[in-house]
Specification:
Elements lengths: L9 H6 L14 E2 L2 H4 L10 E2 L6 H10 L3 H6 L5 H5 L8 H52 L7 H11 L11 H13 L1
Antiparallel strand pairs: 1-2
Helix pairs in contact: 6-8
Length: 187
C-alpha cells in the first residue's frame, strides 16, 4: 500500500503557519500510526524512527540506535540491544517523505477549509444584517407612510458616488441603507 500525496501548492505554504518541519513524526523523531504499520509487513507495537532526510529528530534517534554497546555503556545509557528493541527502523526514507507530504497537505487542506468556513460564516452574517436592515426600512416606510420614490435622491447620489447603476433602493450598499434607516428613525 502506497500513500499518494497531493501536489503541494507552495503559495499555500506561505499563507499557513506550519507547526512542524516534519509532518511524518511531528518533529518528535518517532512516527506512529495505523497508516504506517500498514506499509510495513509484520506487526509492530513499537514506534518507528522517522527516516525522512530533512528530519533532525529522526536522525538523532537513528544515530543513537546505531551506537554500539560500548559507546552506549560509556555514556551511562541502556544497552544497545535494549535501546534497539524499543524502536522500529524498517521505514524507508521515501515512505517517510510520502507520509510527510500526505499529512502536510491534509493539514493545509484542513486550514483552508476552516478559512472557507469562516468566510462563509461572515458572508451569511453580513447577508442577514443586510436583510434585517432592508426589513427595518420597509417597516419604517409603512409607519411613516412613505413610498419608494422617497429614495430617489439617495439612488441618484449613490449612482454618482459609486459609478454603479442602482435600479432599486434595496440594491444600495448596506452602509448606505443603514444611514438611510438612521435618518428615517430620526424624523
Amino acid at each position: 500500500m502506497k500513500m499518494l500525496a497531493k501536489k503541494i501548492d507552495r503559495n499555500c505554504d506561505r499563507e499557513v503557519k506550519l507547526p512542524y518541519k516534519c509532518f511524518c513524526c511531528c518533529d518528535s523523531g518517532l512516527a506512529a500510526g495505523q497508516w504506517l504499520t500498514d506499509l510495513i509487513e509484520g506487526d509492530s507495537d513499537i514506534p518507528f524512527i522517522c527516516k525522512r532526510m530533512d528530519c533532525e529528530a529522526g536522525r538523532s534517534f537513528d544515530n543513537a540506535w546505531n551506537k554500539s554497546h560500548e559507546e552506549r555503556r560509556q555514556n551511562g545509557n541502556c544497552s544497545a540491544i535494549t535501546y534497539q528493541n524499543s524502536f522500529d527502523v524498517r521505514l524507508h526514507p521515501s515512505q517517510c517523505e510520502d507520509a510527510h507530504n500526505f499529512v502536510k497537505q491534509e493539514f493545509i487542506s484542513m486550514i483552508a477549509n476552516q478559512r472557507r468556513e469562516n468566510i462563509y460564516a461572515k458572508f451569511v452574517e453580513a447577508a442577514s444584517d443586510r436583510t434585517d436592515t432592508i426589513n427595518s426600512i420597509r417597516s419604517e416606510m409603512k409607519v411613516q407612510n412613505l413610498t419608494e420614490s422617497a429614495f430617489e435622491a439617495a439612488l441618484v447620489h449613490c449612482i454618482k458616488r459609486d459609478g454603479v447603476l442602482y435600479l432599486h433602493w434595496e440594491s444600495l450598499p448596506t452602509a448606505t441603507l443603514k444611514v438611510l434607516l438612521g435618518k428615517m428613525q430620526v424624523n
